[in-house]
Amino acid sequence: MSILVTGGTGYIGSHTVVELLEIGKDIVVVDNFSNSRPEVIENIKKITNKDFKFYEVDILDEEKMNQVFQENEIDAVIHFAGLKAVGESVKKPLEYYYNNITGTLILLKVMRKYNCKKIVFSSSATVYGNPGNPKYVETMGRGVPTNPYGKTKAMIEEILEDTYNADKNMSISILRYFNPIGAHPSGIIGENPQGIPNNLMPYIQKVAIGELKEVSVFGNDYNTKDGTGVRDYIHVQDLAVGHLKALEYLEKKGSGVYIHNLGNGQGYSVLEIINTFEKVNNVKIPYKITDRRPGDLDMFYADPTKAKNELGWENKKSLEDMCRDSWNFMKNN
Ligand code: NAD
Ligand code: WQD
Predict the structure, then answer these.
(1) Is the CB of residue 239 less than 8 Å from the CB of residue 177?
(2) Which letter does DSSP use for residue 299 in this model?
């Protein structure tokens, strides 16, 4: 029996594949390399000393997805494949809805055909919308995300719930990630986006290496500890382990739809991130304060209690670890 990982050469997917291989799982990865590189496959093998099957397949290609299920006995799917850039999704909504939603529909259709009943889905804190309380807890339910990317996540959650309502043998885990940063401690895999990054940590990494001049801090007049935006940053390796726990939970609980936040439960400000990065890595990160970024919220973080109580999962790594591993990866690459 194998676990299919869609988007398994991407940032979070590759770290999860490493953790799955480390505990001896049989896995099959599909990715179309729209936002990752083939070298990642060799890098995962280098870290783990283990082999796995890879298909360069677009999940929108139903025929090829059928072939993947035909050639392998797939017992569960971890579904990472999707487009994730918030700003780009505003400019290209149709591409985002098509890739993320149609891709998931095709995956679920093929799973149904091959009687595969377990799926873990990469959702996001963005589905809470703007609930008014910065501590996001699963009982709040879904709000209205402000961009097409976020809307695809909320819609896919609903599609998964409807899929369960129509087939009560399905076991579905929805994981809502907060802000993943960091990299594998080996420095061999991590996140290195093409061009000018949108997210804070990749931007800091590029300033640290000298590729970009300074970080623009988007606003220092928020109602937060130091006026800059506050988020719940979580080490990508901790996040990866959360998927193993979610799979175990599906095994234990059987059918149902289970929703969990994966965050550390603490908010860090933009300046705290910059200062910690400078301190642990002994590098200078020049920055300037600019206007707020449209659409940004002042502050939010996870209530991770449900994941702790039900999945037995909690984050282990500190902000220092996240900053050190992000820089270590950047230096190596
Ligand atoms: P990523 O872009 O690094 O990984 C996604 C992978 O999916 C890439 O390797 C890409 O090539 C692949 N892919 C995209 N469309 C595909 C398709 N149609 N067929 C096959 N492969 C396809 O992103 P990530 O940061 O690793 O995110 C993984 C998942 O987690 C995504 O669904 C993302 O929306 C979600 N998520 C990410 C974050 C974050 O901040 N990184 C936060 C919350 C949720
Ligand atoms: C973090 C903080 C910025 C860049 C996004 C998506 C979300 C999820 C994670 C997928 C904010 C500030 C940033 C910069 C800055 N992804 N900032 N200068 O916006 O919390 O979340 O990624 O689901 O859906 O929206 O992450 O890293 O862009 O920003 O000051 O150059 O850093 O204002 O306070 P965000 P981010």
Answers:
(1) yes
(2) B
Query: 160-194 burial by CB neighbour count: b if 16+ within 10 A, else e?
Result: beebbeeeeebbbbbbbbbbbbbbbeebbbbbeee
Burial class of residue 131, CB neighbours in 10 A (0-12, 13-18, 19+): middle
For 169-226, write each residue's pLDDT tens digit.
999 999 999 999 999 999 999 998 888 999 999 999 999 999 999 999 999 999 999 9
* Span 157-169, pLDDT tens digits: 999 999 999 999 9
Retrieve residue 11's tokens. 């940032």
Ligand 1 and 104: CB distance under 6 A: no
Is the CB of 218 inside a 6 Å radius of any atom of ligand 2?
yes
Atom number, ligand 2, closest to the C-alpha of residue 180? 9
Pairing of strands 268-269, 230-231: antiparallel
